[in-house]
Amino acid sequence: MKLIVGNTGEGNAVFLVEGELATNLTEAFPEVGSDLMGLIGSPSLAAQVAKGAPAKEKVPVSSIEPALPVEQPSKIICLGLNYVDHIKEGGYAVPDYPALFMRSLNSMMPAGQPMVRPTCSERLDYEVELMLIVGKGGRHIKEEDALSHVFGYTVFNDGSVRDYQRKTHQWTPGKNFDQTGAVGPFVVTPDDLPEGAVGLKIESRVGDEILQSANTSDMMWSVARTIATISEYTTLEAGDFIAMGTPPGVGHAKTPPRWLRPGEVVEAEVEGIGICASPIVDEADFASKAAAE
C-alpha cells in the first residue's frame, strides 16, 4: 500500500494512494483514525484496507496537504554515518558501531512545509534519507526477525545546521533546529518494496541541480541490523521513526560549500516511495508570516 496522511479541509485523514488519486480511508473506515497509528495498531484492519476501500469518490493527491504520518511518535532515532563515501567526505573514520542521535518533534515537519534557515546561521544543509516507521515494538529484536517490525517506509530530509552540529562532540544542536526535518509525504508498506528497501535510488536536488545520488544498497547498516542494534539499548514502540542515514554529496563537503538558500525548493527522493519537497525560508520571514496568520 501507498499511504498519505493529510488534510483536504476537513481535518487530517489517512488516504490510500493509487496513481494521482487517493481514497479517504478514514471516511471509509472510521477506526483508521487521523494518522497511521490506527493501521499500525491493528494488522487486521490494515489487511482489510489493503484489500480495497468501499467505492468512494477519489480526490487528487495534489489536493491533500500532508501531515506527519504519525502525529506523536514516541522516538525519532537517526543514523548519522551509514554510507562509506559520506563518512569519508565528512572526515570521519569508518565506525564499527552506528552513530546514533535523537531528534525532537519540534524539529520535524511534514513534506511541503517550509524548511527554516535560522537567523543565527546560513549553514543549512540537506540530507536525503530512507526512513522507516516501526509497526511492532520490542526489545532485543533479532536481526532475522527485525523486518517484521517495519510498518512502512518514507522519505526524510535531515536538515542540518552544520556550524552548530560541529560546536560539540554531540550533534544535538545542529540536528534539532525547529522546522528542519521534513518527512513524507508518502508511506509505502514493505510488500510494495524490495526486502529491507534495498536497491532503491536515493537522491536530493534543487531544480535541475543534483546534490546527492546513490542507492540504498550502499548502506553499511541494513534496516534489519539497525533495528536489532537500536533495540539492544531501548524498547522500540509502534510509530517510532528511524532515519537510515544519508549518502555522499552533502553541502558542507562541497567546494565551495553548498548551503540551502531562501527561495529554493529542495527535493529528497527515494525510488518507489516518492518526493519530499521543502521550500527554504528565512526564520525572520517565517516568523512574520506565522504572526500575521
From TrEMBL:
It holds the Pfam family FAA_hydrolase. One of its GO terms (molecular function) is hydrolase activity. InterPro entries: FAH (IPR051121), Fumarylacetoacetase-like_C (IPR011234), Fumarylacetoacetase_C_sf (IPR036663). The keyword Hydrolase applies. The keyword Metal-binding applies. Keywords: Hydrolase, Metal-binding. Residues 75-280 form the Fumarylacetoacetase-like C-terminal domain. It comes from the Bacteria. Belongs to the FAH family. This is Fumarylacetoacetate hydrolase family protein. It comes from Roseibium polysiphoniae.
